[in-house]
Amino acid sequence: MKTKVLALLVALGVFGFVGAFIWAALRPTPTEIAAPDGAEPTAKVSEVISDGLIGMQVYVLGNLDVLLEIQFAPDANATASAGMRPDVNFAMLDMHMDGFDPPLELVGSGEWRARLKLPMAGRWVVSAGFGEDRAEVEFDAR
Ligand SMILES: [Cu+2]
Fold first, then answer.
1. How far is the CA of 126 from the centre of ligand 1 (A)?
2. What is the per-residue DSSP string for 52-94?
3. Cα-to-centroid distance, 97 and ligand 1 (Å)
4. Dihedral, CA of residue 98, residue 103, residue 108 and residue 111, to nearest 10
5. CA 119 to ligand 1 center in whole angstroms
6. Nearest one of 139, 87, 90 to 119, comparing CA atoms
7. d(Cα 22, Cα 136) in Å, to the nearest integer?
8. Rounded to an integer, what distance in angstroms lies between the CA atom of residue 21 and that of residue 75?
9. What is the whole-number distance in angstroms between the Cα of residue 120 and the centre of ligand 1?
10. pLDDT tens digits, 43-99
11. Of 21, 68, 101, 119, whose CB is crowded by the most CB atoms within 10 A?
């Protein structure tokens, strides 16, 4: 009787172990937050700021969804490092609306990404950098 229970427990353990691997292989992958394949950014900028080179690409995806990609390559003598989160600000042009700083996801060394929904359509400007030292680019949101 004892061996039967033991055999059952071992069988369940093996089943669970194998099951975990099957689940790992079959589970749905998280929705890829990436630019549409081969799509050109709606707006982009590449600018030398005092700490290095900063690049931004804005993809307007429709339905007020926007994908922002940022790359920061610090100079050798920069005070900002590639792992330092840049300050980002989205603001509307010609409107007295509060700007906002979206959550950023670190996707690589000095590479950041934000996916967000803007509160309204129109002309926006996004800036990124460190303190007052930043690059900016305008785009139309729809
Ligand atoms: Cu507005």
1. 14
2. EEEEEEEEEEETTEEEEEEEEEE-TT-SS-TTSPPEEEEEETT
3. 6
4. -10
5. 7
6. 90
7. 46
8. 44
9. 6
10. 999 999 988 999 999 999 999 999 999 999 999 888 878 888 999 999 999 888 899
11. 68
Q: How far is the CA of 118 from the centre of ligand 1 (A)?
A: 9
Q: Which two tokens stand for residue 69?
A: 């990609």
Locate 1 and state its tokens.
């009787």
Q: What is the 41 CA–ligand 1 centroid distance (Å)?
A: 22
Dist. CA 30–CA 50, nearest whole Å: 37
108: Cα separation from own chain's centroid: 10
CA dihedral over 16, 17, 21, 22, signed as positive or negative: negative
